[in-house]
Amino acid sequence: PHQLQQCKQPQTHPQVPLQPGQSFKFTVLETLDRIKEEFQFLQAQYHSLKLECEKLASEKTEMQRHYIMYYEMSYGLNIEMHKQLFFTLLLHYYCFIQNQGCGKLL
């Protein structure tokens, strides 16, 4: 708590000029402002990524729904194809039997 009160007080000592090879010295308020800006940037980035993630999850659900629909259609067509094949073979066999019977009568 004591440190926070110090941050609110204006800075009374003069800033020391930079010497060659010395890095820039931030004040506490400047550092807090910079941290606040970085935090806001990270929050905005998080929000953007969260929206993107939700969008991708929605697209994934939609793709799964389409996959199931196409799978069901494919399965139904496969069954129908096997039925048609069965009836074709049955008709072929019936015609073969009929031809064999006609051959014996002649």
What does this structure look like?
This protein is rod-shaped. It has one domain (26-105). It starts with a helix and ends with a helix. Helices cover 80% and strands 0% of the residues. Residues 1-14 have low confidence and may be disordered. It is mostly helical. The protein contains two helices and no strands. This is Groucho/TLE N-terminal Q-rich domain-containing protein. Its main location: nucleus.
Oligomeric grouping of the chains? single chain
**Helix content range of the residues, please?**
over 70%
Unreliable stretches (pLDDT < 50, length at least 5) are 1-14
- Bin the strand percentage: under 5%
Number of helices: 2
Mean pLDDT: 82
Largest sheet: none
**Globular, elongated, flat, extended or rod-shaped: what is the shape?**
rod-shaped
**Gyration radius over CA:** 40 Å
Structural class of the secondary structure composition?
mainly alpha
- How many extended strands? 0
Count of the separate structural domains: 1
One letter per element, helices H and strands E, the order comes to HH
Distance between the termini: 117 Å
Keywords: Coiled coil, Nucleus
Domain Groucho/TLE N-terminal Q-rich: 24-85
GO molecular function, one term: transcription corepressor activity
Coiled coil: 32-59
